[in-house]
Here is the input.
Amino acid sequence: MESQITWVEKPTATCTTGQCNNATQRWSVADIEALFALPFNDLMFKAQQVHRAHHDANAVQLSTLLSIKTGGCPEDCAYCPQSAKYDTGVDTEKLMPLDEVLKAAQAAKDKGATRFCMGAAWRSPKDHQVDAVGEMVSAVKAMGLETCVTLGMLKDHQAKALQQAGLDYYNHNLDTSPDFYGDIISTRTYQDRLDTLEHVREAGIKVCCGGIVGLGENLQQRAGLIAQLANMDEPPESVPINNLVKVEGTPLAANEDIDPLDFVRTIAVARITMPKSFVRLSAGREQMSESTQALCFLAGANSIFYGEKLLVTDNPELDRDTRLFEKLGLKRFES
Ligand code: SAM
Ligand code: DTB
Ligand code: SF4
Here is the structure.
């Protein structure tokens, strides 16, 4: 029997929640909650339709992460093993020298990554640190890799300096909905995040922005995160959806795991509401079955972090990913 659902590609609604950041938001939180509430098969069917209209259904973009400045971060993000506030056994290190970064970038390229993402455990970098990262960006780009960095909050002139250095993407996650943010982080505000994203956009750098599920958010708050992302004047080119990696010593270490099918639903809803974006199945793959990952690809995920480490936690071994790609007939996305 035909599904009774009428699909609306981009609903126009007036904001009733106070959570939208533009007057004519495209997706209300209620619209997104309604997507989450669909029968699983209907949701997956719609996600596939949208995915196939905008992307090669069997191509997945491969990004490799490197922590260029590990640990000792002054922020108190409750999920993060790199916060100095929690005893997680992560040692604090200085900014990695350029030659080591380039060695890691070459290794990532040799193994098939097309984008190299460098992460620093900073609240907000100083100008001389931005200059040092700018040098890394220029050198990695010269190797023929796309570049992405995530350094915390940026001032407008710092975003411009990174653009001048040739940076392709800046990763800065909203992580969760505005009304749940204060439960997770107290050392900065949601508006701080939005301000940095605006500086990045204005500098002409592509935006990589997503969030984490499994923080203890309710369904409305999960929908609230997607609404924030989808209603940006220009949705992020890249949307990482992380499943919380529970790290001993962090306040969220004992959180209950979310149902894997709810994670898949989050990917599908991100795909439907941000048709052109690359949706990245990000942290949490190490703990995920092959079947769940396969469902995530079916739901429209078309990017992963590829390489044995995320920043400080484990990611699947390369041969495990190679086998999974072979089983699923997936190929590497070439831009
Ligand atoms: N300090 C910068 C910042 O917060 O933007 C950059 C690095 S920070 C580690 C980058 C992102 O990693 C966070 O925004 C969060 O989404 C993700 N992340 C950190 N710890 C995580 C965890 N345990 N599980 C899943 N995602 C995590
Ligand atoms: C993103 O959204 N996920 C990545 C990347 N952007 C920087 C980080 C995941 C971190 C997982 C925990 C860790 O290894 O530190
Ligand atoms: Fe610091 Fe980023 Fe970790 Fe927050 S997520 S504690 S800002 S490294």
